[in-house]
Write a structure and sequence with these properties.
Elements lengths: L1 H15 L2 H23 L7 E7 L4 H13 L3 E4 L19 H9 L5 E5 L3 H6 L7 E4 L6 H32 L5 H20 L18 H34 L2 H5 L6 H35 L14 H25 L3 H18 L11 H7 L3 H14 L8 H21 L4
Parallel strand pairs: 1-2, 1-3
Antiparallel strand pairs: 3-4
Helix pairs in contact: 1-10, 2-8, 2-10, 3-6, 6-7, 8-10, 8-11, 8-12, 8-14, 10-11, 11-14, 11-15, 14-15
């Protein structure tokens, strides 16, 4: 073991003697994480959001429903009714919408939701018969969550007011019959208006108090919770994949061959090299998360929009995710070192590999915003499994047990890479 550690620490000292390596390992990743952290934070929601509306009823009640929807969220632009002169709704020369066309627009992300009000909507409501408003959304988009909340709020508000007006009307009619249908309708409308007004004034509310020790939701957590683990995973991948180029360089310089003249075995040489890059990756991971916590803690003293980065409630689970990804990428780097022949070939291939695995695995952006088939393809990358684990710990109150599937998959990948790397590894 002492010989393995000697090889590891000697290579580590040589690595950190290079100022450029230190800058590339620590400074550049932190800058990327901070910049993207603020970019992802998104303190303000979208100014305008397209939602297609097909009103097959076109009555006073259906128009009231749409008016209430606009008031529920002023960011919503109801297409085609609210389309602007510059064609914000992207309708082109044909302003008419059909359900088939809207479904196509939905799949292309030209609109983020589709609302269909059925024919007979008003008549069914007035007759106290059930009626459904159809809501469709693009599951790959981030916005439909708050669109659906606005729709549900309007349905609840109007439904509550209608129930109140009908109950009031029926109660009065039993005690004192109305002179005619016009008087009954006028009373019902008055009762509805008063009920809707009371509902709008929100006579009661729920006070939310977080449990002791629970993290406070914030925009900055959403930003830095994505950028810190994402950039850390990407730059650790680049750092440990360089091992492939270094193996070629050491063979070229006869460094590996000279090691065989010393009282060390082939297995000890390989173990020392692997341990060096594994430790380097872990140091970089821990430094990235530490700097992320430090930066957000400092900024939280100057801005109420920034809260310290929440690292979850299970430090062991966090370290295990880091270790699993680092080991997996170290194994992949050594495997690549047995396949490539020149340093230039290695640099080109490893840059392509790193720049593919990072965005594919969700290091640049959450996989929640990509199409479903891309989420499946993305999990070819070990980074995707690491980001799934980080998300569970940083956002979903996950524990060590909850991230064991991700850890197991990354360790399985590492085992496969190591088997091929070790069997192909040659000193000469």
């Amino acid at each position: 073991m002492r010989k393995i550690l000697s090889i590891t620490f000697n290579d580590m000292i040589l690595y950190f003697r290079d100022p450029g390596a230190v800058i590339g390992t620590f400074l550049i990743p932190v800058v990327f994480a901070v910049v993207l952290g603020f970019a992802f934070s998104g303190n303000n929601g979208p100014t305008q959001v397209r939602i297609d509306v097909i009103d097959n009823d076109n009555t006073a009640l259906s128009q009231l429903f749409l008016t209430n929807l606009r008031q529920a969220n002023t960011a919503l632009v109801l297409c085609p009714a609210d389309n602007s002169e510059d064609d914000f709704c992207r309708l082109g020369d044909d302003p008419a919408l059909t359900e088939e066309r809207s479904l196509g627009r939905l799949s292309n992300n030209d609109t983020l939701a589709l609302l269909v009000i059925p024919a007979g909507f008003e008549a069914s409501v007035e007759a106290n018969q059930p009626v459904s408003v159809t809501y469709r959304s693009n599951e790959n988009a981030a916005a439909p969550t708050f669109i659906l909340q606005a729709v549900q709020a309007v349905v609840q508000r109007m439904g509550g007011a209608l129930v109140a007006s009908n109950v009031a009307t029926n109660t009065v009619a039993e005690a004192l019959p109305f002179d005619d249908d016009a008087a009954r309708d006028a009373f019902r409308q008055q009762a509805y208006d008063e009920a809707a007004q009371l509902w709008a004034e929100n006579p009661f509310s729920v006070s939310y108090v977080a449990a002791a020790g629970a993290p406070q939701a914030s925009n900055s957590q959403g930003g830095f919770g994505q950028s810190v683990p994402g950039m850390a995973s990407m730059f650790v991948t680049f750092t440990v994949l360089i091992s492939a180029i270094n193996l070629i360089r050491e063979r070229k310089n006869w460094t590996l061959q000279r090691l065989t003249t010393m009282p060390v075995s082939r297995a000890q040489i390989l173990a020392g090299k692997i341990l060096m890059y594994f430790l380097l990756g872990m140091i970089q991971f821990i430094a990235m998360f530490g700097f992320g916590l430090l930066v957000t803690t400092i900024l939280s003293n100057f801005s109420e929009n920034v809260t310290p980065l929440y690292l979850g409630q299970d430090a062991l689970g966090l370290l295990l995710i880091m270790a699993s990804l680092t080991l997996c990428m170290t194994a992949l780097g050594f495997l690549m070192g047995t396949l490539i022949r020149t340093e230039m070939q290695g640099a080109a291939l490893l840059n392509l590999l790193g720049l593919s695995l990072a965005p594919l695995g969700g290091a640049w952006w959450p996989l929640d915003i990509v199409p479903e088939f891309m989420r499946v393809v993305g999990h070819i990358s070990p980074i995707a499994w690491a980001m799934d684990g980080f998300r569970k710990l940083l956002f979903e109150q996950g524990t060590l047990v909850s991230v064991l599937p991700e850890v197991g998959i990354m360790l399985a990948m590492a085992a496969v890479f190591f088997v091929f790397a070790i069997t192909r590894f040659k000193i000469e």
